[in-house]
Amino acid sequence: MRTAIRTRLRQMVEADIPQVLDIERESFPSSWPQTAYKRELTNKIARYLVLAEVREDAETLRGAGAPGIWASVRRALGGVEPALTSEYLLGFVGVWLMVNEAHIVTIAVREEQRRTGVGERLLLAAIDLATDMDQEVVTLEVRASNDGAQRMYEKYAFNRMGLRKRYYTDNNEDAVIMTTPDLFTPGYKKLVAELGARHRQRSPDLWS
């Protein structure tokens, strides 16, 4: 059972890139360079979200306890106390908003956080984003060997639409193309609402 944490879901910013690259290296055989993510953050059709754990900053706390330091920091900031928090990224998701289609280009979870609901939380965020942007469906590619991810997508009614042969350049593995039904059909809206409510009940800290 995981210890209660504080999290927030937000847009990725450039300062997140080093942590994003760490997560990507843990998740995939090959990864994008830092410059690619910088370009993506200015890509008009791209949206990147991170799920961040808000933690107390131990270094700041230690510094604040030293004699005279706290008062000096406050004076330097015009009397405003700095926040004693930092953010530790648990995972991220990237979506391209195509014509009537939201394409999940990447979704990754820090290795130590897998099987804790983080991946499903990010998938729900991507579906919500697509709905908010009036996209008709969500689509993605997943490795043919990644049974766990495929089961999660099937839970959200992603259908197998075909294969991209030898899609992954690191080992020439096939990619399974998976796509949701129309996001705005009553049945699908009900499914996502029910699954989202269950996830929120099961992992409330990921919604805080």
Describe the structure concisely for a colleague.
With 208 residues, the protein is of the alpha+beta class. Helix content is 36%, strand content 30%. A seven-stranded mixed sheet has the order 1-2-3-4-5-7-6, with helices on both faces.
Number of helices: 7
Major β-sheet annotation: 7 strands, mixed
Instruction: Categorize the overall geometry.
Output: globular
CATH secondary-structure class? Alpha Beta
Helix content: 25-40%
The class by helix and strand makeup works out as: alpha+beta
The beta-strand count equals 7
Order of SSEs: EHHEHHEEHEHEEH
Return Rg in Å: 20 Å
Q: How would you describe this protein?
A:
25% of the residues are buried. It contains 7 helices and 7 strands. It has a single domain, classed as Gcn5-related N-acetyltransferase (GNAT) (Aminopeptidase). By secondary structure, the chain is α+β, with helices and mostly antiparallel strands. Residues 58-84 have low confidence and may be disordered. It has helices at 17-27, 34-40, 58-64, 69-76, 118-132, 147-155, 186-202, and strands at residues 7-11, 46-56, 85-97, 101-109, 137-143, 159-168, 173-179.
